[in-house]
Write a structure and sequence with these properties.
alpha/beta; Rossmann fold; Immunoglobulin-like; 5 domains; ten-stranded mixed β-sheet; six-stranded mixed β-sheet; 18 helices; elongated
C-alpha cells in the first residue's frame, strides 16, 4: 500500500504526516479565489445553456467534470509544495540501541540463523550500509542493552548475554545520556521480549515530552510453529524435611496436539520423578501436576523439564529450575478433644513418629479438668484452651475434635477464626458426635471458615450424625494432592486407597462452598446411598482450613497389616500440610527464587508482633551471606504502601545460593528473626515468551512518532529519521504540483467529459 501511495503522491506517507502543504502562486492570494469562482462559473454557464434532449442530471455531471478540470489546472498554477522539517547534517544525534539479551541467541531466522547475526548485519558499517548513511547525516551513539543499557563505541560482540530484558530502564538510560542535546530519534534493534518493564506508558510519555521518536527494528520470528514452553512451575517455597512436594506445571504447546512427551524432575544429576504427559495445542496452557520427595534440610534447586519433540524449533524453554527450602523445624499443632476416642490416641502415636511435627494435645476429662500432653512446661494450657491471641497464635495449626461449640466462649470462637484469617494458621475440624452442626457450630464464627456447608437447605434432609459404613474415594484432585498422596507412583497410590478398610460414622454436610476443593468422598456400602464429602479444604484469609467428616480413620491402623504405614502417612502428611504455609511473626524473602548476576535482588521482610499485629516502627536489619562466606548488612526501610513490610535491595557479585536473614526489634525488645534463600545464576527466563513481540514494538514506535520495521524494510529508515523537527532542523521544500495523482485526476475528468459529450451528441 505504501508503494501505491508513493506512486500517486510522489512521496511516502511519512513526509505528509510530518509536513504541511503550502502554495507558491505567482499572484496575490485573493486572485486565486477569484479564479476559482470564475472556473466554477464558466463550467456552469457552459452546460446550463445546453438544451435539447440532455437531462438535467447529465448536465450537472458535465458541469462538475468541466469545473474539476479547471480547478486542477488552477491548483497546478498555484505551485503546491510540501514543507517538511529536515535535520541539519551533523547537528543532531541518533542513538543506536541493540539488544544483547539471551533471547537474541534464538535461531529462528532464515536457514536457522540466530537473531544476533541479523542484528549484527544491520549494525556493521560498510559501503551502502544503513550505518554509513546514518553517519553522513547524524552523530551516532551506540548502546547495548539487556537489563539496562551501557554506552559503547560501536557494535560489539559480547561473550555473556543478559539474563533479562528491560526496555523501560534501558531506554531511560539512553535518553538520560543526551541531556538537552537534539536527538533525531532512537533506533531500537530488539526482539521485543521484554520481561522486566513495569511502566511502559510512562516511558512513552517521557519520550513524547522530549520529542524523541522511536524507530524499532523487530529481530526474529513473530510466531513459532512447533514449541513446548514450560511457562511456570508453582510449588511451595518452603517444606518440612521428608515431605512430599506437590508442584503444578503450566505448559504451553504449539503444533503438538495430542502428542506425548516425558516430564522429568531432577536434583542435579539425580532423577526424582518422571511421568508421561499429553500435550495441548494452539498455544493453550495446560496444567500438569507432579509430586516428588524432598531432600534433607537446606536449600535445594530442582529442575523440571519436558523432553523436546524431534521437530521442535526451540528447546531452551522446555525447562525451569526452582529453589525450595527444606526446613528441619518442629512447628507446634494444638489438638483439642472433648472426649477420649480411638482417633485421639492413634493420631498422637502417628505424630510422635514425625520428628518435624510437635502435637500438643488438650483432652477434656471432666468439667474444668484436662489431660495435657506434649506441652513445653507445666504452665502451658494450664487454664484450658487459650483465651489470648498471643498464646493461641504461638501454634501454627489447630485441630478441633469432637468438642461442642459451647465448650468455647464466643470470644474464643472468634479467636479461632482470626487464627486462620489473620495469623495465617491451618485449621482442621475432625468428625464426631459433637463436631460440625452436631456440635452446634452453625451460626458461629467457625462456620464461616469451614469448607463445607453444615446446615441443610431443605427440611427433609437429615442433620443428625450418621451411623453408616462407607469407603473413602479420592476425587481426581485428591489423587494428586500431597495430603492424600500416600505413594509418589500414581498406580500404587490409587491401589492403596482402594485397598484401605471401610470407615464408620459420618457427619453429614450439604454442599461445598465456593472456592473449596474436595479431596475425598464417602461412598456408602449400599450402592443407593448418597455420596457425601469426606475430606475438603479451602483458603480463608491468610490461612487455610480443612474438614474431615469422620473420626474413624483409626480403622486404617487397626484393620491393616501392622507393617503397612498407610494410616501414619495420612496423618503425617495432613498435619504437615496444615502448617506448611503458616508464617512466623517475622519472615523474610525475595520477590523470586532466582535472579541473574546483573540485576538487583528485592528483599522484603514482614514484621508482626506476637499477636500478629503489623509493626511499622521496628528496627529491621538484613544480612545476606554469599556462597563465599562474605556477608553484607542491609538496613531495611518501612514500605509505606504495606503495613508491617520492610524492603531493601541487594546487588550480587557472585553466583550461587545466598542466605538472607532478618532480625527485628522494637525498642529494646527483640521481635524475632528468620532466614531464607535465593539463587544467583543463569536462567532460561529469556527463552520464555520469546517470540518477536511485534505488537509491543509497533505500539512504542507509533506512540512516540516513529515507525516499526522488519529487517528487510529498514532501507527507508535513514530518510525517515532525517525528517524530524527537533530544534536543530531546517524546513525543506518539496514540489508536489507534478504528482501523478493530479495529472491522472485532470486527464480522467477531461476524458470522462468527452465520453459523456459524445454520448449526447455534443462533441
Amino acid at each position: 500500500m505504501e508503494f501505491i501511495f508513493e506512486f500517486l503522491f510522489k512521496y511516502r506517507p511519512l513526509l505528509y504526516d510530518r509536513g504541511t502543504v503550502s502554495f507558491r502562486p505567482p499572484w496575490p492570494p485573493h486572485v486565486t479565489w477569484l479564479l476559482a469562482v470564475a472556473a466554477v462559473a464558466v463550467a456552469l454557464f457552459t452546460y446550463l445553456k445546453v438544451r435539447g434532449d440532455v437531462p438535467i442530471g447529465w448536465r450537472i455531471l458535465l458541469s462538475s467534470l468541466r469545473g474539476m478540470s479547471l480547478l486542477v489546472v488552477l491548483l497546478l498554477l498555484t505551485q503546491p509544495v510540501l514543507l517538511v522539517p529536515s535535520v541539519i547534517p551533523q547537528k543532531s544525534f541518533v542513538a543506536l540501541a541493540y539488544d544483547t539479551s539471551r533471547s537474541m541467541e534464538i535461531r529462528d531466522g532464515a536457514g536457522g540463523r540466530p537473531r544476533l547475526d541479523i542484528e549484527g548485519e544491520l549494525l556493521k558499517p560498510g559501503p551502502a550500509s544503513m550505518i554509513e548513511a546514518l553517519g553522513r547525516r547524524f552523530k551516532l551513539r551506540y548502546f547495548r542493552f539487556a537489563g539496562s543499557a551501557e554506552r559503547v563505541g560501536g557494535y560489539e560482540e559480547v561473550k555473556r548475554r543478559g539474563g533479562q530484558t528491560n526496555l523501560e530502564r534501558s531506554l531511560d538510560t539512553v535518553l538520560g545520556e543526551f541531556a538537552n542535546a537534539p536527538v533525531a530519534g532512537i533506533i531500537l534493534l530488539t526482539d521485543g521480549a521484554d520481561n522486566r518493564s513495569v511502566d511502559l506508558p510512562g516511558l512513552i510519555a517521557r519520550l513524547r515530552a522530549r520529542r524523541v521518536p522511536l524507530y524499532a527494528i523487530g529481530i526474529g520470528s513473530p510466531s513459532i510453529t512447533r514449541d513446548i514452553e514450560l511457562v511456570q512451575v508453582s510449588a511451595p517455597r518452603r517444606v518440612l524435611k521428608d515431605s512430599i512436594i506437590d508442584a503444578t506445571l503450566s505448559v504451553r504447546t504449539t503444533g503438538g496436539a495430542g502428542r506425548k512427551s516425558r516430564l522429568v524432575v531432577r536434583e542435579g544429576e539425580r532423577e526424582l520423578r518422571s511421568a508421561e504427559v499429553t500435550l495441548g495445542n494452539g498455544g493453550e496452557v495446560k496444567s500438569h501436576r507432579v509430586t516428588f520427595p524432598s531432600g534433607p534440610a537446606g536449600a535445594h534447586v530442582y529442575s523440571f523439564r519436558i523432553e523436546p519433540l524431534p521437530d521442535e524449533q526451540m528447546i531452551e524453554n522446555n525447562g525451569q529450575d526452582i529453589l525450595i527450602e527444606v526446613e528441619d523445624s518442629q512447628p507446634q499443632i494444638l489438638y483439642v478433644e472433648g472426649e477420649p476416642r480411638w482417633v485421639f490416641g492413634f493420631m498422637r502415636r502417628a505424630a510422635e513418629k514425625d520428628k518435624n511435627i510437635r502435637l500438643v494435645t488438650l483432652l477434656r476429662q471432666a468439667t474444668g479438668k484436662f489431660l495435657r500432653q506434649g506441652v513445653e512446661s507445666s504452665s502451658t494450657l494450664e487454664k484450658g484452651f487459650p483465651a489470648d491471641a498471643r498464646e493461641l497464635f504461638g501454634y501454627k495449626a489447630l485441630v478441633a475434635g469432637s468438642v461442642e461449640a459451647s465448650f468455647f466462649s464466643f470470644e474464643q470462637l472468634r479467636l479461632i477464626s482470626e487464627f486462620v484469617s489473620r495469623r495465617g494458621g491451618g485449621f482442621l475440624m475432625l468428625g464426631g458426635r459433637s463436631s460440625f452442626a452436631q456440635g452446634g457450630y452453625a451460626s458461629t464464627p467457625v462456620e464461616d471458615l469451614l469448607p463445607l456447608v453444615i446446615r441443610p437447605d431443605r427440611a427433609t434432609e437429615s442433620a443428625g450424625f450418621q451411623e453408616l459404613e462407607f469407603k473413602a474415594r479420592l476425587t481426581p484432585y485428591g489423587l494428586e494432592h500431597p495430603v492424600t498422596r500416600i505413594s509418589v507412583d500414581d498406580t500404587t497410590n490409587r491401589r492403596r486407597w482402594e485397598d484401605a478398610p471401610m470407615l464408620h460414622g459420618l457427619n453429614p454436610t450439604f454442599g461445598v462452598k465456593a472456592g473449596a476443593t474436595v479431596l475425598a468422598t464417602a461412598a456408602p456400602r449400599e450402592a443407593t446411598g448418597q455420596m457425601r464429602s469426606l475430606l475438603a479444604f479451602q483458603r480463608f484469609g491468610r490461612g487455610r482450613s480443612m474438614a474431615l467428616t469422620t473420626g474413624s480413620v483409626w480403622r486404617w491402623r487397626m484393620e491393616m497389616d501392622h507393617r503397612d504405614d498407610f494410616h501414619d502417612l495420612f496423618w503425617r502428611q495432613l498435619l504437615r500440610w496444615l502448617v506448611a504455609e503458616a508464617p512466623d511473626p517475622v519472615s523474610v524473602g525475595s520477590s523470586r527464587h532466582s535472579f541473574s548476576l546483573d540485576e538487583a535482588v528485592a528483599i522484603t521482610a514482614e514484621v508482626r508482633d506476637a499477636d500478629f499485629t503489623p509493626l511499622n516502627n521496628a528496627r529491621v536489619i538484613l544480612r545476606v551471606k554469599a556462597p563465599s562466606g562474605q556477608e553484607v548488612v542491609l538496613p531495611a526501610g518501612w514500605d509505606t504502601s504495606k503495613e508491617g513490610f520492610y524492603s531493601a535491595a541487594f546487588k550480587p557479585i557472585e553466583e550461587g545460593i545466598h542466605q538472607v536473614s532478618v532480625e527485628a526489634s522494637a525498642g529494646d525488645r527483640s521481635v524475632g528473626r528468620s532466614s531464607s534463600y535465593f539463587r544467583i545464576g543463569d536462567s532460561n527466563e529469556e527463552y520464555h515468551g520469546a517470540r518477536m513481540n511485534a505488537d509491543l514494538l509497533r505500539l512504542l514506535a507509533k506512540e512516540t512518532g516513529g515507525r516499526y520495521y522488519a529487517p528487510h524494510e529498514a532501507g527507508t529508515l535513514v530518510e525517515d529519521v532525517s525528517y524530524v523537527d527537533n530544534g536543530a532542523s531546517q524546513i525543506e521544500e518539496k514540489a508536489i504540483w507534478d504528482m501523478p495523482f493530479l495529472f491522472l485526476l485532470l486527464s480522467g475528468a477531461i476524458c470522462t467529459e468527452w465520453i459523456v459529450r459524445k454520448k449526447w451528441g455534443l462533441a
